[in-house]
Amino acid sequence: MALYSREDDVAIIAVNNPPMNALSHHVRKDLIKFLKVAEADENVTAIVLCGDGRTFPVGADIKEFHKSVSALGPTIIDIVHALEKSSKPTVAAIHGSALGGGLELALGCHYRIAMSTSKVGLPEVKLGILPGAGGTQRLPRVIGLDNAMKWIAYGHHHPAGVGASLGLIDRIVAKGGDIRRSAILFARSMVGKGLGQRRLSNVSVPDASKVEELMAKHLKEVGLRTRGALAPVVCLQVIKSSALLSYKDGLESERQGMMTLLASSESKAQIYSFFSERQVSKWNAPGIANHATAKPMQVRSIAVVGLGTMGRGIAISSLKAGKKTYVVELNSKALAAGVKYIRGYIETMKKRAQISEEQAAAMQSAIIPVSSYNGIANVDLVIEAVFENMKIKKEIFGKLDKVCKPSTILASNTSTLDIDEIASATKRPEKVAGMHFFAPAHIMLLLENIYGRKSSAETIATIMDIGKQMKKITVLVGNCVGFVGNRMYGYYTTESVFILEEAAYPEQVDKVLTDYGFAMGRFQVGDLSGNDIGYKIRTGLGITHKQQPAGTPERKRGVLRYCPLGDFLVEKGRLGLKVGKGWYKYEGSRTPIPDPEVRKIIDEYRTRHHIVPRDISSEEVLQRMLYPLINEGFKILEEGIAANPWDIDMIYQYGYAWPRHTGGPMYYAFTIGLPQVLKVIEEHWKAAGASEPHWQPSTMLTWLVENHGNPDISQWMPLMQKHKSKT
Ligand SMILES: CCCCCCC[C@H](O)CC(=O)SCCNC(=O)CCNC(=O)[C@H](O)C(C)(C)COP(=O)([O-])OP(=O)([O-])OC[C@H]1O[C@@H](n2cnc3c(N)ncnc32)[C@H](O)[C@@H]1OP(=O)([O-])[O-]
After folding, report:
1. Can you give the residue ranges of the 3-hydroxyacyl-CoA dehydrogenase NAD binding domain (predicted)?
2. Are 401 and 377 in contact (CB under 8 A)?
């Protein structure tokens, strides 16, 4: 709802719809009603619009989208026009954030004042839509076309001070000031000053003459930065109309753009992503604990064992979260190198104004270098980040168990290994868990937390809480080889080399993936992370080409199909970007260049095995790259390793750069339709049989299709649970 009050001659209309003052239908009704009251009251000379509680309105109510209530009048644009039309000065008093429809309301006001700590922006593009309450037409009239294109096409939130420098905010109230009081005084001072030019629909766009040039510039940038997404392009086209058409016709173009985007699968995927991102923090470890009941332990200090690339990043994340951070290397040279890197990184963040001087000083003084395990006996949490080797990890956990106080939680940053086996090296398995960070750990937003069979509720709640304190998207999953992310990714890479054998070169596969929306294709990613990583894993499994006894068929490992092309590359020194050659060659930059040498390796291999390359469609490449991963996702849900499909999707968006506008692998499957996905998987399974088990259809996928067709993604788990409880 909204509340109406008077301070002498100034009317105050305050939105009161916790937690974020979203502009739900009942709020919109109140706003129109109170504006009429204020307009009709001859004792009112000015009107202040504000938000109660945490913030000014942060936009339309996203929960109403794709429901009929979103279109029920009054709409936000009706309120914008009522604010603008008012014969009395209207002032938006912004504290917290004014975003989306909230900022559009503020743009309807004749004046805007804001706290210096506030944020403003039109982030609709991140929901796959555009500012649909006049924002595309009104913002360019205030801050110019160039800035408006940047703000709207990328959807960033901007400090109020930046808004003030562009003329969007008329006055800034210093931290600690009283925004409502300032707005009342400001509104009163504007009475009788004339409102003509304060009504944005009367004003023209300042840099309208540069429209074509700006359009070309921004379309190019958007193409590179948000590959394959429709909303940024439609946003730009609609903003363009603000320079070319009347305000009224521009609004019509905005309305049409909004209809197109609202109907797109992209906006549904983005809205799903918005809620999924928040949903993952409401974790559940079935039979052990959940977010509502389990209490985290207070963690004041964290020790990071191993200062390689991962350990350094984890230590920086710990310092950023304000923890006393012990950094551990038994070798003094390695310790010094690690500490030097971490200290240098903090200074760089300070220079780039990413952190303040005080924060940098606090982080520097919270680093405690240690060269023996005894030095970390009293820490609350240890995160081990040494080599991916079970024997070494077990040795370390055994030692930590002996020296650390009984309450210390011991976590491993393993990306694939069995947490229960690691825990078995200790006498405190209830205090052992996995915390799988993604490189570089201080930058990547994903944290995949793993609970073991014996992890306690408190241990799980604590690692989830630490993820939140580190400001990561923290997803809880169960224990299995590769957990969720890498277990699924394994089949993505497996299938990619099968495609090379049969039909395509790396650049052709990668192009299909970048056209789909990935920033990089699978082979470019391989080169970037180092092809030797996969090679080491395959060596650990004893399956590389060189490890086989003479006479082993090159394309088989037991009954399984195998493709050794990746092995050949590494054995020829083509480790990837770091050595200037891998699946591609690199000539002094990170730009991948298709390499005739690689084609030769593939061609010779095909000739040796009498494979005649065939034409392959982009559709087949995409299906073969993505469907095995989706199929494995269903197996992961079926086994209870992930509690919900959105857990998997968030892991993929934040850990594997899955294009957000398609929602993630599981949501994408829902968009395509589960029956269609299953049909393709079954065809491959029929053709490949037991030699390619990743095509064996998941029981859950099959059951859902046979019994429910393509149920809404929110229903997958409830339907399965109901079915299981009956059988
Ligand atoms: C159909 C025709 C329509 C035409 C008109 C179009 C008008 C307009 O152009 C479209 C829009 O405004 S689009 C909107 C443009 N605006 C945006 O995109 C801004 C969206 N919001 C945000 O980005 C973040 O919430 C903030 C940065 C504001 C705060 O971050 P923080 O401090 O980390 O807090 P938090 O954890 O994030 O949120 C707390 C709780 O609030 C919930 N909730 C939040 N906003 C909501 C909303 N608008 N709605 C509903 N709920 C919303 C959130 O789900 C969570 O619920 P839970 O049940 O507790 O999990």
Report:
1. 302-479
2. no
